[in-house]
Write a structure and sequence with these properties.
The chain is an alpha+beta fold. The protein contains three helices and 15 strands. Helix 2 packs parallel to helix 3.
Length: about 240
């Protein structure tokens, strides 16, 4: 996925109210940008960090600048847009990068399903009526080479695991797909120290037949693409 225009570099002053971030440009000007991420962004919102913004060009938006990237460590770019994750996974399916999810005739987005009024991120449909339910989670937290999810307590994420587990028990293929928008992870694990309930739910979902996939991205100033599968570790 390529950015439609060059990103704008700035320095982060602060992130607040979940969806807002104040930034400072090299010439000293400041602005408030929209933050498309509902998580805590642990490790990715330190004041003074280099960030890159996208100008949406929308005069009707109160905050036309959207925060896209942050440098979480020397040379480590992280994509923080949670909404981009499903697009990256769909692109990886359509280009054949996600080899485990090939062989389906169509891909549908945001389809209602389950017993708890949920929407599945991607529904893969086969010509022979086979379907695969794919729930996508964006991952930005990495500690000592291990990608961790979630970065804050997530009741919604736990609900999605219950829904996937039920689909698997009914005989459908169900996949939890972790989209790691950074390149410095070698594996992925549940962040039990942050949300032990989610960690337990993941293990229960896996026991029910849900598949867990994790891919890390190559993140650059002009594009983000999923590039390499990571092992999912549930010790």
């Amino acid at each position: 996925m390529r950015f439609p225009a060059p990103l704008i570099e700035a320095r982060l002053i602060r992130r607040y109210k979940r969806f807002l971030a104040d930034v400072e440009f090299p010439d000293g000007r400041t602005a408030t940008a929209h933050t498309p991420n509902t998580g805590s962004m642990l490790g990715c919102c330190s004041p003074g960090a280099r960030v890159w913004l996208r100008d949406t060009g929308s005069a009707g938006r109160k905050y036309p600048l959207a925060w896209e990237l942050v440098e979480a460590g020397p040379g480590v770019l992280v994509g923080i847009d949670t909404g981009l994750a499903s697009r990256l996974v769909r692109e990886a399916i359509e280009t054949g990068v996600a080899a485990e999810l090939q062989g389906y005739a169509a891909v549908r987005r945001e389809v209602r399903y389950g017993c708890e009024n949920s929407r599945i991120d991607l529904l893969l449909e086969g010509a022979d009526s086979r379907s695969c339910y794919v729930e996508v989670k964006n991952v930005t937290l990495v500690e000592q080479g291990r990608a961790l999810f979630p970065d804050a307590v997530t009741v919604r994420g736990t609900k999605h695991l219950r829904e996937l587990g039920e689909m698997a028990r009914r005989g459908h293929r169900a996949v939890i797909f972790y989209c790691v928008q950074r390149c410095d992870a070698d594996e992925l694990a549940p962040a039990d120290h942050i949300d032990p309930v989610y960690g337990l739910a993941l293990r229960q979902a896996l026991a029910a037949g849900v598949e867990a996939l994790a891919y890390r991205a190559a993140v650059a100033l002009d594009a983000i693409t999923l590039a390499r599968r990571l092992p999912v570790v549930c010790p």
